[in-house]
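Tutorial sheet, problem 5. The two components below are modelled jointly, 796 residues in total.
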Amino acid sequence: MTWVTGANGSPYGVTNLPYGVFRTDGREPRIGVRIADQVFDLAAAEAADLVLAGGALSRATLNEFMALGRPQWTAVRQRVTELLTDEAHRAAVQPLLVPLAEVEMLLPFEVADYVDFYSSEHHASNVGQIFRPGQPPLLPNWKHLPIGYHGRAGTVVVSGTPVVRPRGQRATADGPVTGPSVRLDIEAEVGFVVGVPSPLGRPVGVDDFADHVFGVVLVNDWSARDIQAWEYQPLGPFLGKSFATSVAAWVTPLEALGAAFVPAPEQDPPVVDYLRDVPHLGLDLRLTVEWNGERVSEPPFATMYWTPAQQLAHLTVNGASLRTGDLYASGTVSGPERTQVGSFLELTWGGTEPVTVGTQSRTFLADGDTVTIGATAPGPDGTTIALGEVTGTIRPAR
Amino acid sequence: MTWVTGANGSPYGVTNLPYGVFRTDGREPRIGVRIADQVFDLAAAEAADLVLAGGALSRATLNEFMALGRPQWTAVRQRVTELLTDEAHRAAVQPLLVPLAEVEMLLPFEVADYVDFYSSEHHASNVGQIFRPGQPPLLPNWKHLPIGYHGRAGTVVVSGTPVVRPRGQRATADGPVTGPSVRLDIEAEVGFVVGVPSPLGRPVGVDDFADHVFGVVLVNDWSARDIQAWEYQPLGPFLGKSFATSVAAWVTPLEALGAAFVPAPEQDPPVVDYLRDVPHLGLDLRLTVEWNGERVSEPPFATMYWTPAQQLAHLTVNGASLRTGDLYASGTVSGPERTQVGSFLELTWGGTEPVTVGTQSRTFLADGDTVTIGATAPGPDGTTIALGEVTGTIRPAR
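Model answer (structure tokens):
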């Protein structure tokens, strides 16, 4: 129970406490924790000696705090929980709560490298059927390793940032043409944020996941399917993805997700040694996709074939180092049903089966469309917690 | 003519003046310019008011200086040239020259995003013939756009850093196995370093190349061919590349390469509008590849199909922003002859035609092998300048 008005029973209650970076007019960006519809200003709390983190909570990004490691993350979370639950602290803390309506949220961490996986069997199978009809939907390597690639870190933007429709080349019957993308899509994903770095040449094992990963953000990996289709052979997606990737303003710490870990789908064939995680756990995050305010899909993250611990072990098995701020995303989250897919490519089956959004027909995104991805998860003590949403509106091409 | 002993006639003479970051024992990293076999300490020069750059020359990386833009880059280069040529400055500058043998060179810039292109027609054709015999060597998109992908920025290391042989999965007749790579290769490339950033949503045109690009570094994009071959469908290279990418310690400013711009190969079919650069210029950089001290190849950069200005325009046509420290590499540089290829994959034709290196037979890299990539170019005033070499030695897998 917290003394904060409106927080008990809220999906942003005291068992959630995600971290973000905010600004109120004319002041410096600083770190806060969300509680109900308010932001607890941790920079101010640190300045008042209410919470101690060696100054790491008084920076403009979460990176320095995330680099401190799990014992410090736990200590700060415990202290913040104490401040928000013990009436004795109310007088000191209440003045440090800022209404969410009065703040501007900023990118919560400086992104080091951004990696995007492709770990939903349903998504990979759907894409295979759409693009390679009549052939096996999964490629031969897919069940042996979590397929992934590097994306553009410099174009990761915070939720709410408008997305300008990208221009680029696409193939037509008359050869390639250049213009605004005509197949602009979303990918509903879950991102994992690395706090503790690792040295070059030293793989991080599946058991070390919680020592390195600070928390989770929802991700929309905007995708221009026409640009991607023309460019991606043989080196993978490039400009079809690099124009923008949106992340939620709130990073949910792993501690808040303890009750959300559930057995992941069984893997057959068995995986090789470095990918064998015991227990083999995914996360029961229940995503929602809203297109212009209408819910069009509910992707279940618990159905993902590869787990975040396996993704981290794979990412580093070759000796690649981790840096604070590395972001790796799951790949599009799609469940077995058409109402559970994480892309409009799948929702409209390659654009061949339009859907009705409000009163309008859609295959891909129109200018002015807004997409919002949210999620809930089982929280501590029988609560339900919400993950910070990621939203964006399409602006016309320049 | 410079007053620095040994510098007149040197490939690192006063018409070259590449920038790097160095350290001498127990002191802070700082920026220097190479002249012959000495480093001119620009941090000390700035502290002594010999050169003015608002403190940007007194940082641990080139990033702040590179962000200043071309007028400042030109002003600093002119001033450094003056200091090194006018006898009047000798007494003040001489004490700020440090023998190269006494310094440790560090990564010269903090890498923001790393992009790797695939812009040599000879290389792409060779790879096509090796991997897809009997089919057209180039894919249909190749002559319409410069194919590229994002690599891992966090594992870009400075020349001289040992490279640990990566472990990973590779395909065998009995299914995938995990172990040290057995087909470890190089890729001799030329990298372009972005100084001036660009805003999200605003493409950078082919004519704006020199406003954004600060200079050039040689790159060795180490590649584990067996890991790459198994993982790369459908999203491109990942762990086969991400374990290490080496760059030279010296960044050659574009100003030093004015005489090296030459007409690039004619492009047929004609390229689309945003890729049309007039004049269409490549760089006459003459690369050398040494394997355990023996020269095995001389890749000619002037044969590259896509120019660095076209690569930059392509990279941003979708509105992707640039950051200071972005690095984009050309892709493997290979000329038409077997003695001009930039990878051992091509030199040994897929590992089927071993070469003799010293007294030993090689297909791919053995533990202990050292590869050094160098280059020369026509410099100002009829001189020949050298680009800083990039070297690395293979350590056994852990």
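Marking note: The two ends of chain A are 50 Å apart (CA to CA). Full credit if you identified this.
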